[in-house]
Amino acid sequence: MVRDGAATVVTGLGLVTPVGADEDTFWAGLCAGAGVARHCEELAGMPVDFACRADGPDLDEAVGGRAVFRMARFVKMALVAARRAVADAGLRPDRWDGGRVGVVLGVGVGGVSVLVDNVRRLDADGPPAVSPLLVPMMMPNAAAGEIAIDLGAHGPSLSPATACASGATAIALAGDLLTSGSCDVVVAGGAESVVTPLVVSAFAGMGALSARTGDPAAASRPFAADRDGFVLGEGAAVLVLERAGDVRARGGRARAVLAGAGAATDAHHPTAPDPDGRGAERAVEAALDRAGWAAGEVDHINAHGTSTPLNDAMESALIARLFPHRPSVTAPKGVIGHTLAAGGAIEAVATVLTLEHGLVPPIANLDAPPPDSGLDCVTRNPRRQHVERALSHSFGFGGHNVVLAFQRVPSPR
Predict the structure, then answer these.
(1) 164: annotated active-site residue
(2) Active-site residue, 304 included
(3) DSSP labels for 260-278?
């Protein structure tokens, strides 16, 4: 437990997602509980020809300025989300001490479409055709770097790559930077944009993607008995984190408390989760320990819920084993697909909004969980529930497990 003034709090949220690029639209889309996957022209002829694309806003227009030409799509999404999060926090980059501001932006892959395009140029026209901007556009840390440039953030700038747990890892690291005193403000989250024929073919070849090409919107089915794989998505989400005492001193607003975070590694297999969930269990226990909570105090779990047979089986058994009091469970990937490195950050935003609204979004395409799962999944319609304490799970290829513990901000006395 930490002193109240030293507690890490969330003060700003920003998003670009397949279901909306502003907080209200995103939340309404999650609560509607309908998948948004669709056939994509660029995937025509691929084994899987659908995905969850983040179609709005016009990213070039939203970013603006001459620097837009040097940014890959994932960087543009991250920058738009970061600007919105900072504005939501009520902070002014032209007035802060940039040396005390950090940026932690998780990215798993980077600018793969830029790389593929330049490989084609090289094959067709030789070395002179390769763009001198290839390296700065494809490198995964470009998002953190461009955000730091745009915001004048001169503190630590980090880009963790823990696959599908990258966004959650970034938020956990942000909490550590604040707790250690290294920063006063941290802009943290995740971004990913890899909806390309190359990546889709690779995931399809390994059997990870849903093959429901006849009904894309119904393909992502977390915890459903007939799930057959995930749906690839794209997006970005950024949270602004500060110490509670600093927020009060500047007259700001805390939206949620990041009470704790835990991380552990399966050390089991490059892509498959440990079926016994031992790494995930250690991450949950570490998050609870950091938060000072007992397992029975958790009201709600935002599950990783990929809609893959192995991950959902491991996670449902984990939740049933550790939380026999049956907290409510949701899984946003049923609506927005799997946004890879952005997933943990987008779902952290969803968890914060659940705490604020007292409403749990339903899991899309799930009428009821298997009767032997032991889970209290929210299905069909959003559920009104006062949630005081919630966990957000993120599990990634490579066996990376990260769990974030969020607590509702107490009402003013």
Answers:
(1) yes
(2) yes
(3) EEEEEE--S-SSSPPTT-H
